[in-house]
Amino acid sequence: MSKGSVYQRGSDGRWVGKFTPPKNPLTGKPSEPIYVYSSRPGRKGKQEARRKLNAAIDRIDAGDLSDVYKVTVAGWMKTYLKVYCKEIEQSTRDGYENYIHGHIIPQMGDLLLRDLRPIHVQAFYNHEREAPRMRKRKDGKIVPVMKGGKPAIGYSEKTLLQIHRILSRAFSKAVGDGMMKQNPCAGVDAPSPEEYEPTIYNEEQFEMLLEKLEGHPMEAMILIAGMCGLRRGELLALQWEDIDFERGTLAVTRNTVATSKGIQIKRPKTKKSARVIAVPSVIIPMLKRLRGIGRIYTKPDGTPYSPSSVSKTFKLFLERNNLPKIRLHDLRHFNATMMLRHGVSEREAMERMGHANATMIKKYQHVLKEMDRANADKLNTILKKGDGAKRGVK
To answer: Tens digits of per-residue pLDDT, 112-170?
Structure first.
């Protein structure tokens, strides 16, 4: 049984095929009819219109709805959040909502999904590179980001890469649902931020930091950060009960995350992040001296600090004590560097830091190169013996 209808138009005798698709599954509203037209009148024109109509219906039956529903980018991104992001972590969802409502929808929201092309995505990225940077205040107002007394211009490549990943995932789902024929992000080069080069303390600078911290509420947290390599969220969720002073071990079982619904204490970032590690014996007496009850570092009322506020406190502490500027997370880099420099294997360092694979450890190439040079120099003894003297080897 054929679908749709074919009729002859009285004005010019051309044949018209008409078919009304089912309701729009996103809005629940009736769909607009699809029309196809013959290029000629007469019997052959009728056959042509029927062929075109059947082809259009076959595409719809096969799941290609790109020419049927007039879905905008804004409409799809909201649907993507509602349907496909329902089960993701709240902190991740907050980030998605920020990029979607703060960047994507204001610039591309009115475009029809079916009309979107790579050039639209590229033009959007170009705009973001030149636009004034904005931020949301605690009162909900959107205000410019100021730098040196002037509005900051241009979002970073790191921000653009996050937006690109969200768009690519959302459009991939749209293609799978038949709302688009192809993903326009596939035709655009992904933004490529430069690799961040952390500032890493040496041993003397870390000891100076600890001296300045003596008696400060952050003392134990910073000591553990540098000597055990915990992430910021792990440090803020750490409790004194997680340290076994008799066995000299520390258990990482929780993570602190800031979300739109407040500070949440959750499971560690990944399965590898949940770990029990040995604590360097040299800091056990120091930790015993600082030992308390509850969290290692907490507000006076026992509630957790937000990760961002702790980073600001740490930055201010460094400034007031004329210490080299580093991020709180850079103490984790310090720990990894020291482990590699003092002979801990990549595999062991990976396990202690809770990395899922060795890729992150490979980032410390400067240390690995130093270690390789030291290993090569050990071979010098081969030519320093016997015939080595004849070759000018001392």
So the answer is: 998 999 999 999 999 999 998 988 777 778 888 888 888 899 999 999 999 999 999 99
**pLDDT for the residue numbered 272:** 87
Tell me the average pLDDT across 208-231.
96
What's the burial of 302, exposed, middle or buried (CB within 10 Å: 0-12/13-18/19+)? exposed
- How long a stretch of residues is the chain? 394
Start and end residues for every CATH 1.10.443.10 domain found in the chain: 203-328
For residues 44 and 77, is the Cβ–Cβ distance under 8 A?
A: no
Exposure string for 33-44, b = 16+ CB within 10 A, e = fewer: ebebebeeeeee
Q: Is the CB of residue 96 less than 8 Å from the CB of residue 84?
A: no
Q: Which amino acid is at 253?
A: T
Class of the domain covering 203-328: mainly alpha
CB atoms within 10 A of CB 270: 11
| pTM for this model (two decimals) | 0.73
Rg of the chain over Cα atoms, rounded to whole angstroms, equals 31
> Distance between CA 142 and CA 131 in Å, rounded?
14
